[in-house]
Design a protein that fits this description.
Low-confidence stretches: 1-14
Order of helices and strands: HHHHHHHHHHHHHHHHHHH
Strand content: under 5%
Structural class: mainly alpha
Distance between the termini: 25 Å
Number of helices: 19
Helix content: 55-70%
Shape: globular
Number of strands: 0
Oligomer: single chain
Mean pLDDT: 85
Largest sheet: none
């Protein structure tokens, strides 16, 4: 997969109103590509083709830019929904074209403005409680409107199933932002339509209990493992950038400087967490490969083992959420392991659907992974014992299994 090319800087001769939106768009793009903590105000200004002082005439600081970018994304979700639902009014309630219009609009938004669907979910830790509450309320309201149209007449679904499927659709449409597969918009739109169609046809209440066998997290053995366990919990709850070494030390009953006897830096702790999660995923893949050679059964087993690892320990979620940090490090072995793991899924999808190009297969895999990753990141439904089975069911449904 090749990296997305850097967009050309825009002219500094734009009107002030356009300038503000220009800054928001460039900031959103950089926050998605590299992560909020790794982006400076100077880089945003440079990408937008303006000076630092010019940027500060519109925004007080970087956090204000993030807030504006997230809220603009919600504005886009609401505008897209308003237009789509207005267009459906020309069709009768039982006309399938009503559904097609909304699905097309949702998929188009995922292609044109993927940050509208994912920027908040990736960067909510850097917003205030009040800002997060506002974004959550507005996003939930949008999804309720989607649900009313997408699941009209689906009396077989309970309210919680409809909510879960609506969030899954949002994850699918935002998944193009989490990988670097390059594909023409027409093909991307067609594949997203297929995946959304698969998702809204599912019934999460019928999901079987997850029984995947994977490498257990186990109890920490030794101070090094205790530090990794405590760090993983803290990074997931507060965000990597918001956790200090002193806090990690306190969590395991030692001083902050004592942590350096086991790890040279906080970055080293993060990469160790990533390697530990990669080892668990590989163990699950090896276990699946030992019992079946059927591409369909193997892919289903991989989905189940992925969910088992994701929901049994914070490690995998922490590694995934901090991918931008890891990409800036010399962690080639970890990144290679992650790419190899995803490539295995993509190869299986192309075996199951022989006529499907690899790019479309990659979109399919990342959409399925995004459903599980987003759910765990947003802590939705974590109190439900049935959640792991439901996530595996949704993933397999989107994968066409």
């Amino acid at each position: 997969m090749s990296a997305t090319p850097e967009p050309p800087a825009l002219s500094t001769a734009r009107r002030p109103a356009d300038r503000k939106r220009q800054l928001i768009d460039r900031a959103a793009q950089l926050f998605l590509e590299r992560g909020y903590p790794q982006v400076s105000v100077a880089e945003i200004a440079r990408a937008a083709g303006v000076t630092g002082p010019s940027l500060y005439r519109h925004f007080d600081d970087k956090q204000a830019l993030l807030t504006a970018a997230v809220l603009t994304g919600v504005d886009d979700l609401e505008t897209c929904t308003d237009r789509a639902l207005s267009s459906t009014q020309r069709y009768g309630s039982d006309d399938p074209r009503r559904l097609d219009v909304l699905v097309d609009a949702i998929c188009n938004l995922g292609i044109r403005r993927p940050e509208a669907a994912v920027l908040w979910r990736w960067n909510g830790a850097f917003l205030s409680d009040e800002q997060n509450s506002e974004v959550a309320a507005r996003t939930t309201a949008v999804l309720e409107r989607w649900a009313q149209a997408l699941f009209l007449g689906r009396d077989d679904l309970s309210p919680w199933e409809i909510r879960q499927l609506a969030w899954a659709v949002l994850s699918i449409t935002g998944s193009l932002s989490v990988h670097t597969t390059r594909i023409p918009a027409t093909r991307a739109r067609a594949q997203l339509r297929t995946l959304v169609g698969r998702a809204i046809a599912l019934r999460p209440a019928t999901a079987p209990e997850l029984t995947a066998v994977t490498m257990p997290a186990g109890e920490a053995v030794g101070r090094r493992e205790e530090i990794l366990d405590a760090s993983s919990e803290l990074f997931q709850r507060k965000g990597f950038g918001n956790v200090g070494v002193d806090e990690i030390g306190e969590a395991v009953g030692i001083t902050g400087p004592s942590v350096y006897k086991h790890f040279p830096s906080k970055i080293a702790i993060l990469t160790s967490i990533g390697r530990r999660s990669a080892a668990r995923l590989e163990a699950g893949a090896m276990a699946a490969g030992a019992v079946t050679t059927s591409p369909r059964q193997l892919l289903a087993a991989l989905a189940e083992s992925y969910v088992a690892v994701l929901t049994s320990t914070p490690d995998l979620s922490v590694a995934f959420n901090n991918g931008a940090v890891l990409r800036n490090l010399d962690a080639r072995d970890l990144l290679a392991a992650q790419h190899h793991y995803v490539a295995r899924w993509i190869a299986l999808v192309t075996e199951i659907e022989p006529g499907l190009p690899r790019a479309e297969a990659a979109i399919t895999v990342h959409a399925a992974l995004s459903i599980a990753n987003d759910t765990v990141r947003m802590r939705r439904g974590r109190e439900r014992p049935a959640l792991p089975g439901q996530l595996a069911y949704l993933m397999k449904g989107v994968l066409g299994l």
